[in-house]
Amino acid sequence: MKQPNLIGILAALVFASTLCSGALASEPSVLQGADGYELKVPLGLDPDALSVPTANPLSAAKVELGEMLYFDARLSSDGTIACSSCHDPAKGFTDQKQVSSGVNGKTGTRNSPTVINTAFNIFQFWDGRAPSLEEQAKGPIANPVEMASTLDVSVQNIAKIAGYRPYFEKAFGDHVVTIDHVVDAIASYERTVLSGNSQWDRFIDGDKTALSESAQRGLHLFEGKALCTRCHVGFNLTDGLFHNLGVGMGAESPDLGRFVVSKEEKDKGAFKTPTLRDLQRTAPYMHDGSVKTIEEVIDLYDRGGEKNPWLDPKMEPLKLSADEKEDLAAFLRSLEGDWKPAPAPKLPE
After folding, report:
1. Residues involved in catalysis
2. In terms of pLDDT, which residue wins out, 29 or 173?
3. What is the Cα Rg of the chain in Å?
4. Residue pair 312/305 in contact by the 8 Å Cβ criterion
5. CATH of the domain at 293
6. The whole model's pTM is what?
7. Share of the chain above pLDDT 70, in %
8. Residue where one domain finishes, among candidates 129, 163, 190
9. Which residues lie closer than 8 Å to 146 by C-beta, 6 or more apart?
10. What is the domain extent for residue 310?
11. HSE on the CB side for 216, CA within 13 Å?
């Protein structure tokens, strides 16, 4: 007998319970880390759902080190590509390109997903192949079309930089550079990339003037006729699971997404549901960056996705009017957080 997808069931239960529990409108809160570190969690986000491994607790020292490593192109084979090259804070922690460019201008086939609120994800990458931010951080380093290095060479490059030694000492009690310390630090920094306190959050929290009348109508559509909450649920507006919308499936050799990981027929062409927060900062959209605007996203859903043998049964034509589409777009734009990108840190020499 085929075993049930327990991880998928758990993910669905976590996100569904989050929506039903009222965590959608939590008060601004503080998450306590090690060494007295406090992470401020914006209004609308649930700190209890933030995934912090017991083996890698948050600390001020690790976050500081991780931010520097995140911006350091010396992790790449030729010193030109950093995490921030494809996940730029000034561009909504994406690169705002259809697909990203790596070492020597090589390009991949997928759009760079935002780092915003990835701390709440159960799966990382569009296909969910990484179970944690720590594992995700290793991927681009060794990817031949991204940083095009190896884990060992990247560690050696950082270990040669004398200015990093006191930071590793402070973060880990030892200045020795290891790949585990590198990715633990990067993941710690990425867990601080949070977006909340949007117009929607403030509206849900009781400020009935926070949303325009158009956005309020859009919220009603989002929860009803537009069927958005079939997948975009909870405070982070994602079920964390994988769905086939038909995007890119007409290609001669389509990207099969989650199927490459799971090998399950139902997962062909299925990709992880992204958060809807800060949408206007993170265009273009979908796993292949083929959908350029919020309006085009709405049109895609309105026609019920793109037909293919594995189209998710949750997809169906919506028959929205032009005014309804405008209202829905107004609501989606209300999901922008009030954060501002910080300048890149000074890197050790």
Report:
1. 146
2. 173
3. 20
4. yes
5. 1.10.760.10
6. 0.92
7. 92
8. 190
9. 76, 81, 86, 100, 102, 103, 108, 139, 140
10. 196-333
11. 10
pLDDT in tens, 103-137: 999 999 999 999 999 999 999 999 999 999 999 99
| 31 shares its domain with 180 | yes
| pLDDT for residue 22 is more than 50 | no
Counts for the chain of helices (H) and strands (E), in that order: 12, 4
Q: Please indicate, yes or no, whether residues 37 and 147 belong to a single structural domain of this protein.
A: yes
Model confidence at 7: pLDDT above 70: no
**pLDDT above 60: residue 168:** yes
Rounded to whole angstroms, the Cα distance separating 313 from 232 reads 15
168 and 150 inside one domain:
yes
Residue 266 and residue 310 in contact, taking contact as beta carbons nearer than 8 Å: yes
d(C-alpha 44, C-alpha 24), whole Å: 5
Q: Both 153 and 250 in a single domain?
A: no
Q: What is the pLDDT of residues 40-82, one digit of tens each?
A: 999 999 999 998 999 999 999 999 999 999 999 999 999 999 9
Domain count along the chain: 2
The end-to-end CA distance of the chain, in Å, is 58
Together in a domain, 174 and 205: no
Residue 6 located in a structural domain = no
